[in-house]
């Protein structure tokens, strides 16, 4: 069933388990995520991000994701992640996405508040939930790499002001996490997570979930992280599955698809069990 973010994250916060958000830039990824969630009787979030649109346009993503979510036997939130522009966020809403992230985290603080608060008013009037970001979750490589990441960590008191003035439904926090592959094991600031969770009383979001240790996930979920973003791990798994299919002698794309899906489903299943949302 198609639901919004509150429908899956508020129970997760109260129950001290996490819900995985998986980007799905093709039907095979979407099948891997939703079919696994159904098999494990788990809520799940699935969608795409603005930086991924060159791979698959938003309209195409909506064409397969929305009907699949509606027909699913478990709660599925279709989420537009890291929306960087007002126009693209509105497009996602109009296409039927039930939740969006309006990422204005690199803007000046007051501008971040103003833009996100406006988006919240629009979305809430349409039954759509909104995730904001405070601090800045950098990249492990490329232009987004931060020389001193701790300078961009989310401040707990500022977080209270931000969620009060914007009305967001969840908050992405910068606590030592980063997007993409980790060159070195990350060190999450668990004390900061716990304080922000206590002060804001909102479901918190951990971006850059691929590459964190099992213990990192378990501890983060117990102290306030309710949504964990995963893409790199399933993206790599799909490639590994295709390679396995080629080695097994598959002679067509159709022959490779089962290998691709099975490899991604194994990753999704492991994350769902790790986050504690199975059942």
Overview of this structure, please?
The chain is an alpha/beta fold and 279 residues long. 48% of the residues lie in helices and 16% in strands. It is built from 10 helices and 9 strands. The chain has helices at residues 5-15, 27-39, 58-71, 86-95, 109-125, 156-166, 190-200, 214-222, 232-247, 253-275, and strands at residues 2-3, 19-23, 44-49, 76-83, 99-102, 129-134, 170-173, 204-206, 225-230. Helix 2 crosses helix 10 (253-275). The longest helix is centred in the last third of the chain and has 23 residues, at 253-275. The two termini are 16 Å apart.
Quick overview of this protein structure:
By secondary structure, the protein is α/β, with parallel strands linked by helices. It has helices at residues 5-15, 27-39, 58-71, 86-95, 109-125, 156-166, 190-200, 214-222, 232-247, 253-275; strands at 2-3, 19-23, 44-49, 76-83, 99-102, 129-134, 170-173, 204-206, 225-230. The chain has an 8-stranded parallel beta barrel with strand order 2-3-4-5-6-7-8-9, surrounded by 10 helices.
């Amino acid at each position: 069933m198609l639901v919004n973010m509150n429908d899956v994250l508020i129970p997760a916060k109260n129950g001290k388990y996490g819900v995985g958000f998986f980007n799905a830039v093709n039907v095979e990824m979407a099948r891997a995520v939703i079919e696994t969630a159904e098999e494990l009787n788990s809520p799940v979030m699935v969608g795409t991000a603005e930086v991924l649109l060159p791979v698959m346009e938003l309209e195409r993503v909506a064409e397969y994701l929305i009907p699949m979510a509606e027909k699913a036997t478990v709660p599925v939130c279709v989420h537009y992640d890291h929306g960087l522009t007002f126009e693209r966020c509105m497009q996602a809403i109009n296409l039927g996405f039930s939740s969006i992230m309006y990422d204005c985290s690199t803007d000046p603080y007051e501008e971040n508040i103003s833009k996100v608060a406006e988006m919240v008013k629009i979305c809430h009037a349409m039954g759509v939930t909104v995730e904001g970001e405070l601090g800045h979750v950098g990249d492990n490589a490329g232009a987004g790499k931060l020389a001193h990441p701790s300078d961009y960590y989310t401040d707990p008191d500022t977080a209270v002001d931000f969620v009060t003035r914007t009305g967001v439904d969840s908050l992405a926090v910068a606590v030592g996490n980063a997007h993409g592959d980790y060159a070195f094991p990350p060190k999450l600031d668990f004390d900061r997570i716990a304080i922000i969770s206590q002060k804001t009383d909102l479901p918190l979001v951990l971006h850059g979930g691929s590459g964190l240790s099992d213990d990192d996930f378990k501890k983060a979920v117990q102290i306030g992280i309710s949504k964990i973003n995963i893409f790199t791990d399933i993206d790599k798994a799909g490639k590994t599955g295709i390679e396995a299919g080629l080695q097994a002698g598959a002679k067509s794309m159709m022959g490779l698809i089962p290998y691709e899906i099975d490899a991604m489903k194994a990753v999704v299943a492991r994350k769902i069990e790790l986050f504690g949302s199975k059942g």
